[in-house]
Specification:
2 copies of one chain form a homodimer. Chain A is α+β, with helices and mostly antiparallel strands. Helices cover 22% and strands 35% of the residues of chain A. In chain A, a hairpin with a 5-residue loop joins β9 and β10. In chain A, α3 runs antiparallel to α7. Chain A is globular, with a radius of gyration of 24 Å. The first copy, chain A, starts with a strand and ends with a strand. Chains A and B meet through β17, β18, β19, α10 and β21 of A and β17, β18, β19, α10 and β21 of B.
């Protein structure tokens, strides 16, 4: 099975856990069977591999997410990197071209496209396998998954099937309705459109060549920023007469808001927190190293991260976006492919951060024009390279780097250091990469 | 006017702003006329000086608070340091002996004793002046302030006066009543006992010599840890037949819980925070450098500090103590006479803190047995002394101190540094002080 997982952009609706560089699919919030916490993307990837150990998974995403994906899923997973955001049709065309021209998947093999962030049970992936098989049979150009609605939702698009069979031709598509219309749809036997569909690779490749001017994957990649933003639904689905829908009945949740996300959490507290007996339907997610205490609250979500603290009535939390848009603050925490960093202190002419390097990893060899830096290694072992000179590094070692000096650290074991940046203009953009000698 | 302000112990009921080393009276939460924020102790001190610029103020407190008091009120204020906590009678006896033997206040001058933490209007201090004048006239051995109740409170003790005059003999004292009893007291014209009283210095000094075995202040100080814990009410007030009460009608609030404290706040937000229009009667006090966002909450207090985060229904917040007692965490922030420190990062074998030194101040000259330290100066100018060698220090300077090495930093301007502590056993008790050469 070939699967393209669409990994969407920055989500502010789960602030302070999601932000411009950390999308909701990377938040570790779901208790795994081993007792640790996993993210949406880790959960879905494990579910796919459980349904089909041989599944070929490609994640279509932006450059900003590549580090997080490698960090959470390992280096093996396929990634189709969009050079910039151009909506779902260009993204799916690019990923499809990638599968064909880079991964050499033949044109008659089926591909399933699925968002990376639904919260589903394992049977969903059995259904996805089946969707791929239907596409491969070629009875229709597109096979969609239609989710049996559990209530007349105003948040989803609807698919009206021609009949009540497990697999049926699609009669028509409907946009997000109001409540009364949604109720009417349900009476007609309509299904939710969860954005999951399958096709033969060649079908979308042909559509791409029809609509976009390119030769192969590499060419499409280079022209990507010239493409018009257009959704796959608008460019392909709505114009295609030959579409089937396959019903899926099972748990399917879109965890887009704190309200729906907390419903999916197995426990009410993640992180260091306490609540009194007066708390009803309260969820606390605390990524900080200090305790949260909640008393006498009802229907409230509390979320604390290095970026900030949200305390919200659960219903109200879906209106978070305009408030978060007002917050203009530097990124306080980020996962990178080599590890992570966290801002500890911000002053006018200094910035103190904690850097954690994963074993065997290193940061880019780089220098800064306008700031000096001081490293104090606090744990782990590794090697520093400063202006091409290599030296062993371990706890207590102090490395002073003046502006212009090239530097990196290579971790043998997990290595942590405190970095103090000093300068009148400290900016994330002041970074010149070099080749490590 | 001689005033003894009783500055009580560590309060957990305003966690996370108050803790074992930071009492509620030092929290900067009240907007001053100049637009900055002041603490309870700063507010009351300013009010006293406004009522009587010549007032001689002595703060009776524990050693742990001396730094905070000097930091907030300056070095001039008189402090009677209790070597250990022994309840109010020994504390008042010690402070009275201090006034007589150290400050040479004659025995026939009046002294007014007042808690450091009531939230009152300026007229309260006019009343206190009057209380002192009544005591000096000597018509009674003790003159108490009786606060006109605004509601039948169950939280306060009551004074039943013999008549309705401004100044009246006391008929009897009553412990904290239940609601019905409180209502009955109010019908009898009872007054709240706010713990404010005046006496001639010699009266309490005589009582002290009667009940405690000591010669003078220095002797009492040395014997202090052998004294029995006993309250002034129990030891003196309840046994004294010759007591007057003076009525006070005006704002008087005991800011002991988040509920009462937030009522006294001039504005609903202190620190970096936003709330949506759905928030009703919400107060946010945020000492962290990241934003708090509150949505759709009613009657809630949110308080965030380096020690932790409280989110509580206001009524419920008065039951905080048992929860805070469960929190066993190192102190994350402290004000010292020389400045302040804040813990930025805690690891098994390292601790990173930010140290801020006030201009002209220095920390003790000291060493550690079991840890190395690295300083990176991030702002300001000063001088370091390391194993008796003095050196200028400014932004970017890095000082490495191995275990056993004596060190301090003397700030010329406000000086900030990042200190990384490294060792297998990092403890606040591992500190050996030396004389600065």
């Amino acid at each position: 099975m070939n699967i393209i997982l669409l990994s969407g952009g920055s989500g502010k609706r789960l602030w302070p856990l999601s932000n411009d560089i950390r999308s909701k699919q990377f938040i570790k919030i779901f208790k795994t069977e081993e007792g640790s916490y996993g993210s949406m993307v880790q959960r879905i990837y494990r579910q796919i591999k459980k349904a089909d150990p041989a599944a070929d998974v490609t994640i279509a995403t932006s450059k900003a997410q590549v580090s997080s994906i490698h960090n959470q899923l390992g280096e093996q997973v396929g990634i189709s990197v969009e050079p910039c955001r151009r909506d779902t049709f260009p993204a799916i065309a690019l990923a499809t071209a990638y599968l064909h021209h880079v991964r050499h998947i033949p044109a008659d093999e089926a591909v399933v496209v699925c968002p990376v962030d639904p919260y589903v049970e394992d049977s969903y992936f059995e259904a996805i396998k089946k969707l791929g098989e239907l596409a491969e049979k070629g009875q229709a150009n597109l096979v969609l998954m239609g989710i049996e609605p559990t209530y007349p939702s105003e948040k989803y698009g609807y698919i009206i099937p021609e009949d009540q069979g497990l697999v049926s031709p699609v009669s028509t598509f409907k946009e997000k309705p109001d409540l009364e219309t949604a109720k009417a749809y349900l009476r007609q036997g309509a299904l939710w459109n969860g954005g999951v569909f399958a096709y033969k690779l060649g079908y979308v490749l042909d559509k791409a060549h029809e609509l976009l001017d390119f030769t192969d994957y590499q060419d499409l990649f280079c022209r990507y920023d010239t493409l018009t933003k257009i959704s796959f639904d608008y460019a392909v689905v709505e114009k295609e007469p030959d579409i089937q829908v396959m019903r899926y009945k099972g748990q399917w949740k879109d965890l887009g808001t704190w309200n729906t996300l907390t419903e999916a959490m197995g426990e009410s507290i993640v992180g260091q927190a306490m609540m009194d007996e007066g708390c009803k339907n309260v969820h606390i997610i605390n990524e900080l190293g200090v305790p949260v205490l909640a008393m006498g609250l009802t229907d409230v979500v509390i979320s604390a991260s290095p970026e900030g603290i949200l305390v919200s009535d659960k219903e109200q939390s879906s209106y978070i976006k305009p408030f978060v848009d007002q917050i203009d603050q530097q990124i306080m925490f980020a996962e990178k492919s080599w590890g992570s960093f966290r801002v500890l202190d911000v002053e006018n002419e200094s910035l103190t951060i904690k850097v954690t390097l994963n074993p065997g990893h290193r940061m880019n060899y780089h220098s800064h024009r306008c700031r000096d830096e001081v490293w104090t290694v606090i744990s782990g072992r590794g090697e520093t390279v400063v202006d091409d000179i290599r030296q062993e590094a371990g706890p207590g070692d102090v490395i002073v780097m003046k502006a212009g000096c090239r530097h990196t650290v290579i971790a043998q074991t997990e290595l942590k250091l405190i970095e103090v940046q000093l300068g009148q203009e400290i900016s994330v953009h002041d970074k010149q990469k070099s080749e490590l000698p």
